[in-house]
Amino acid sequence: MTKRDLTPLFKPKNVAIIGASADPGKVGHIILLNYLNEGYPGKIYLVNKNTAPILGRKVYGSVLEIKERLDSVVIAIPAAAVPEVLEECGKAKVRSVVLVSGGFSEVGNVELQDQITAMAKKYDIALVGPNCLGIMNPRSRVNTLFLPAYKLSKPRIGGVSFIAQSGAVGSVILDLIEGEGFGLSKFVSYGNAADVDEVDLMEYLMNDDETNVIVMYTEGIKRGKAFLELARKITKAKPVVILKAGRTEAGASAAHSHTAALAGSYESHEAVFKQFGFTIANDLTDLLYYAKIFESEKAPQGNRIAIITNGGGAGVLTTDAISSSKYLRLAELSEASKKALSKTMPLLVNIRNPLDLAGDAGDKRYHDALYPIINDPNVDMVIVIILFQTPGADSKLAAEIIGLKEIMAKPMITIATGTQYTEMHKVMMESSGLPVYDSPRAAAMALEALFRYYAYKNHKE
Amino acid sequence: MTKRDLTPLFKPKNVAIIGASADPGKVGHIILLNYLNEGYPGKIYLVNKNTAPILGRKVYGSVLEIKERLDSVVIAIPAAAVPEVLEECGKAKVRSVVLVSGGFSEVGNVELQDQITAMAKKYDIALVGPNCLGIMNPRSRVNTLFLPAYKLSKPRIGGVSFIAQSGAVGSVILDLIEGEGFGLSKFVSYGNAADVDEVDLMEYLMNDDETNVIVMYTEGIKRGKAFLELARKITKAKPVVILKAGRTEAGASAAHSHTAALAGSYESHEAVFKQFGFTIANDLTDLLYYAKIFESEKAPQGNRIAIITNGGGAGVLTTDAISSSKYLRLAELSEASKKALSKTMPLLVNIRNPLDLAGDAGDKRYHDALYPIINDPNVDMVIVIILFQTPGADSKLAAEIIGLKEIMAKPMITIATGTQYTEMHKVMMESSGLPVYDSPRAAAMALEALFRYYAYKNHKE
User: Fold this and answer.
1) Are A277 and A460 in contact (CB under 8 A)?
2) What CATH number belongs to B298-460?
3) Domain A299-460 belongs to what architecture?
4) What average pLDDT does the structure give for chain B?
C-alpha cells in the first residue's frame, strides 16, 4: 500500500472550481461563496465554458488555460461532461479533485465511474467522490459543502475529524457537532469512493497533527486487506470511533441498496474493530458521545469513578450506570478526602461516593467537594452531575466547574439534563472544553470507551 | 387494601396555605403565587400566626377559624411546628394535606415523621410528603411546586401522569416533558411518603380518565404486597412506565443513603414488573421515550414496521435498530403498495423497505410515498425519518406529515436529528401529537414498548 499524499486536498495552495456559476442556486456558485465566506487565502480560479465573469472575477474556459499548477479542483458539472474535464485536469497536472457531481455508480452508471477511476490513476490525481459533499477544513478555510446554510450550524475549530460516504449522514453529524459544542478538525463526505477511499482518508488523518480523534460512518469497507493493515497501526496513534451501518441482515441489505456496499458479515468487521481497539458506536448519538470525550480528555490512570451530584436520584441512576459497566467501578474515597469533606460539608451531606450535595448546593459547596477529590489518589475519573433545575445551581456554579476543570489532570465530565436554562449552561461548559452528557447512560458509555481505549493503547505499546 | 380517595388532593374545591408569607422568597409565598398564576378558581385561604394581610388578602391565625371544610391544605412551615397545625387540620376535618416541609426521616428525624403518620391515620387525612414538591394538576389548576420558574419550563396539558419521590428528579422530568413537547396530566413528588405512597397514587391514576399513561421513578416500593395486588390490575387499565433506581448493588446502597429505600433485590422487582407488563426504563431519557409514545399512540395491529427516509444512511441505521429488536420486524410491502409507489416515485428511488426517498425529497414525494403505506395491510407501524439538513426537507414537509398523521389509524413516529432548524420542526410536530425521536435506537425502543405492552394487554384480557 503506497501512502497517498492528500495534503493538496486538505490544505491547497490554490483552488479551481469547474462549473463555477453566477446563479446563486447552483452548486458551482455555493462552493465559490463558501471559499469567499471562509476567507480562503489562496488564489481561487473559476472555470466554465461560458467565460462571462462571475462576481467580477475572470472565468477560464478550461483548466489548461491556467498557468499555475493547481492543488485542488472542485468539479460541479453534469456526470456526462466529467471525463472531458478530468482529462484536462490530468494534462494540467492537477494534484487533487473533489468531484461533487452525482450520476455515477449510485444510479447504476458503473462504466462511467470506472472511467473516472482509471483517469485518476493514470494522472495520479487524488480524487474524492463522485456523488459527495467533499471536504471541510476550517483551519485551511477549505469548504466544498453545498448545504443550505440556514438548515444547519457550523461547528467551531477543534480536534475531531469525521469521515463518511453519505452526504446526508455527514450533514446531520456536522449539525450535531455544532449542537454538542465541540470542535471539528476535518470533515470528509467521500461518496462513491471511485479513487480516494476510507483507508486513504484514515491514513492521512492518522498522521494529521490537527486531529485528536477520527470518527467514521461506513456501510462497508472496500479494501479489506489494506484496512486490516492500517487498523493495526492507527489506534496506536489516536482513537478511532466507528459506526458501521448494516449490522443486521436487513440493515446490510438496505446498505447495499444505498451505497452498493458489499461488505462481509458485521461480525467479521466487529471482530477486527474490537481486536484493534476501535470504539464501536451503534447510533449517530453514540458516535457523538464518544467523539466528544476523546476530543477533550486524556488517558485516565484507572477505572475508579467519583460521582458528585446535587440530586440524590440522579446520583443513584449514575451509580447504576457505572456499576453496570464491566470496565468501570465506583471509587472508594481516601480517608484524607473523607476527612476534608467532613470538615466542609453541611451535616445533611453523607460523606460517601456518590456524594449527594443536596438541592441547595451552589458553587461554594461544589468547590469544597471537588477539591479533595481532584487530589484523591483513589479517584481516576470524575462525574459532576448538575441539575440546573434546583435552587442552588446557577451560572456561578457552571463557571466554578469550568475553573476546576482547568486545573484538573484527571478526566472530568458533567451530566446536565433539561431544556433552556440547562442548555444555556451546557453550551457554556462544552465550549470551555468540559464535556456535558444528557444521561447517566451516555456518561458511563463515554468513560468506559475512554478507559478501554487507553487500556488497549498502553497495553500494546 | 382500602382504596383511598385522593380527589381532594388533585381536584380540591378549596385550598388553604399554612405558612402563607408576604416574602417573595418564601415557599409559602411562591405557592400562593402559583395558585394565582394558574388561575385556580376555588377559594384560597391563607393561614399564618402572623395575621397581617398578604397581597391584600385576609390571613387566618389557624385553619380552625375557617368555616368551610377544606379539601386541600398545603403546609410550608418548619418541621417542629408541623404536629400542632396538623392536629388543627384534623380537628377541622381537612380532607388532604400536602406537607412540603423537610426535616423529617430524610435527616434522621424518624420519630417526628412517625408522629405525622399517626395523625394522618387518626384523622383520615390523605397526606402527601413530607419533604416533597407536592402536586401539579394543570386541569384543576393546582400547583404546589416551589421551583424557580426561570430554570425550567412548564409542559402543556396532556395525558402523561408522573410520580416520583424525589423532588430533584421530578423537576428534571417536568423540564424534559416540556422540552419533548408532550403533555402532562398529573405530577406528584411525594417525598418521604409518611402517609400517601406510590401504591395509593398509582391506584388513583389507574382510575383517572385524564391519565393515558402512568410514569414513575422510584428507589424502592414500600408496600410490596399491596403493590403486587395493584400490579395485576393496573396494566390492564393503562400502560405503566417505571424507572427503578438502585438496580445495582452500589446503586441500591446509594438509594438507601438518599431516601432510606430498603428494597429487595432489583431482580425481584424486575420480575414483577415484567410479569405484569410494566415498561421498564433504565434512564430518565428512556423514561421519556416511552412516556411519549404511550401518550399519543394506540395499539398497533402487529409488529411490522415500514421505514421511510430522505437519508439512505439513516434508513440503514434504523433498519439495524428495528432488526436488532426481538419483537419487531421489517414489513414486506404489499404488491399493491409497490405498484402504487413505482408509479409515483422517481427512478432513483428503489421500491423497498426501508424506502429511501433521497435528499431532494419534499412534501409531495413524502405524501406519495406515505399514502399507499398508510393503507398497506402488511404494515402495522410507520417510522418517518426526516433529515431536515437536506435540501428538500422544510416546514411544508413537516406540515404534510402532521396532516397525514391526523388521518392515520396506525402508530406513526418520526426520527429527526439536529440542532436549531430541526428542533423548530420537532416542536412543531410534537405539539401536533406526532412523536419525534432523536435516534433510531430511541425510535425502536419506543415502538417495541408499544408493541409489547399491547401484546401483553390483549393476551391477558
Assistant:
1) yes
2) 3.40.50.261
3) 3-Layer(aba) Sandwich (3.40)
4) 93
List chain B domain ranges. Answer: 1-131, 147-296, 298-460
User: A421-433 burial, b for 16+ CB within 10 Å, e for fewer?
Assistant: bbbebbebbbebb
Distance CA A113, CA B358 (A): 20
End-to-end CA distance of chain B: 23
Could you read off the pLDDT of B285-320 as tens digits, one per residue? 999 999 999 999 999 999 999 999 999 999 999 999
Q: Which CATH superfamily is domain A147-296 in?
A: Succinyl-CoA synthetase domains (3.40.50.261)
Vertex A4: Cα angle to A298 and A295 (nearest 5): 15
pLDDT of residue B289: 94
CATH top-level class of A1-132: alpha beta
Mean pLDDT, rounded, of chain A:
93
Q: Chain A residues with CB inside 8 Å of B217's CB?
A: 313
- Tally: H helices and E strands in chain B: 16, 19
Q: Which residue of A has its CA nearest to B444?
A: A283
At residue A449, the 3 state secondary structure works out as: helix
Q: Is the pLDDT of residue B1 over 50?
A: no
Specify whether the CB–CB gap between B449 and B299 falls below 8 A: no
What is the pLDDT confidence band of residue A260, given thresholds at 50, 70 and 90? low
Average pLDDT over residues B49-72: 97
Question: Residue A415's closest CA among A446, A391, A394?
Answer: A446
8 Å CB contact between A18 and A96: no
Instruction: Indicate if B147-296 has the same CATH topology as B1-131.
Output: yes
- One-letter identity of residue A337: S
Interface predicted TM-score (ipTM): 0.90
Are B255 and A314 an interchain contact pair (Cβ–Cβ within 8 Å)?
A: no
Nearest CB to A178 within list B258, B282, B419:
B419
Q: Which residue out of B104, B150, B151 would a mutagenesis test of the A interface target, given it has the greatest number of A Cβ atoms within 10 Å?
A: B151
Nearest to B315 among A164, A258, A390 (CB): A258
Domain with residues B1-131, CATH architecture:
3-Layer(aba) Sandwich (3.40)
pLDDT 10s digits, B164-220 = 988 888 889 988 888 887 789 999 999 999 999 999 999 999 999 999 999 999 988
